[in-house]
Amino acid sequence: MKKAFLTGITGQDGSYLVELLLAKGYEVHGLIRRSSTFNTDRIEHLYQDRHEANPKLLLHYGDLSDASNLNRLLRTIKPEEIYHLGAQSHVRVSFDMPEYTGDVTGLGTIRLLDAILETGLDSRFYQASSSEMYGLVQAVPQSETTPFYPRSPYACAKVYSYWITVNYREAYNLHASNGILFNHESPRRGETFVTRKITHSLAKILAKKQKHLFLGNLEAKRDWGYAKDYVEAMWLMLQQPKGDDYVVATGETHSVKEFVQEAFGLVGLNYENYVRMDERYLRPTEVDLLIGDPTKAAKQLNWKPKVTFKELTKIMVIADLEKEGLDPKDFGLEPSPKGQKP
Is 132 known to be catalytic? Predict the structure, then answer.
């Protein structure tokens, strides 16, 4: 039985990746931070019930700022595969907490890579890189050879993590890969991220719990895919003969305004009656256009996105309607499949 070690296991990507790995027969170990409240909602359904643990899913307390603990965990677990998803991942927040973002999002990566070297493990390593690294884009679309031009402390930290992963691969012959993932969303996306903020607020507006939705730059364009599709690409990277770097994207771009229009249109509302612009949500330096070229992933990994932009929006709207106790059928939408966590 293969063992996998995940950082960021309680996040959106971590929860979908755990589902995938467990379905493939892995024993999965996850790093979680100590908190005064439980933060495992996204993976709660993977336990047999609320009181009986899944013997193939084990959680360990730790932090990406604690190198000695990371070293100890790897020495104890001896994972064949390591998926490094953990980070301070909110771009706007990174301007407010630049040092913390650099420490966790940037230096956390080298702590893990050094732990692999120090323990002598033959682990395959996946680094969650980001399309935000392209920032002020130097080419359209963006591929593995497009120069980076980061526009936030978060993106700068991710650029460091990208290059230190490449460096350790070349210097120490590690099986280490960077997945340059473009925006990927789902009903499990945090409510402070723009797509989930839109669908969550829409449901609250319909439930009469909220009157308006406040957003920043409606003209920003992103390449949006479905997170459940993207974690499959992560796994495929670590099944290759050697490590490499891959853009994971849909190859399409849509503005925030388009996402808003699509979401509100699904329930028959005109977004202009509800959406308000708030300068507090503008970034000091904006990233205006991101669109990825996933040709390499398609050829070498045989990976392609399955869920379209419109399907993704619908999945998220339906899930948030249900979360607010609303029946999607009342708005001409089909409910989520029974027995499946969206």
Answer: yes
